[in-house]
Specification:
disordered N terminus, 3 strands, alpha+beta, about 45% helix
Length: about 150
């Protein structure tokens, strides 16, 4: 067997998974969560609730930061068959937050769909990296030739 062949990459940590699930499309989250929820017990611990966080940028030197807007997000915490799952998703999507929390718990407990959760999360991170690279290339193309 060639090196790396048949080996699974190390599972995402809790923080990376939280970030990755927030990047997933709500429809993807909901479809996989529906599969996970078949025959499981769910206890909602907190939320889902919409919150608004200030978007801060550095101010002028010595001025601290300045709030330039507010960003809505939806958060949720639950237990799936006794295992905690947490989620924070952008926007005002109660269903996406619930689904992401279910998937976080599924990955945490190593359930039957944990590998599918991991795969979905990694694909979302890969899409984000590709989007950032495309954006960076676009910005670089607009710069003048001066050093």
């Amino acid at each position: 067997m060639a090196p790396g062949e048949g080996e699974r990459p190390e599972a995402l940590g809790a923080e990376a998974r939280l970030e990755a699930l927030a990047l997933c499309h709500p429809e993807e989250l909901e479809a996989l969560a529906d599969e996970v929820l078949t025959g499981t017990g769910v206890e909602v611990l907190a939320g889902p609730e919409v919150a608004v966080a200030p978007l801060r940028v550095p101010g002028a030197e010595g001025a601290g930061s300045v709030v330039v807007g507010r960003v809505p997000m939806t958060r949720c915490a639950l237990r799936l068959d006794g295992v905690r799952g947490d989620a924070i998703v952008p926007g005002r999507s109660v269903r996406a937050a619930l689904a992401a929390a279910v998937l976080d718990a599924e990955a945490e407990r190593g359930g039957a769909r944990a590998l599918a959760v991991e795969s979905m999360a990694r694909a979302a991170l890969d899409r984000r990296r590709a989007d950032l690279a495309t954006e960076a290339a676009g910005v670089a193309a607009t710069r003048s030739g001066s050093p």
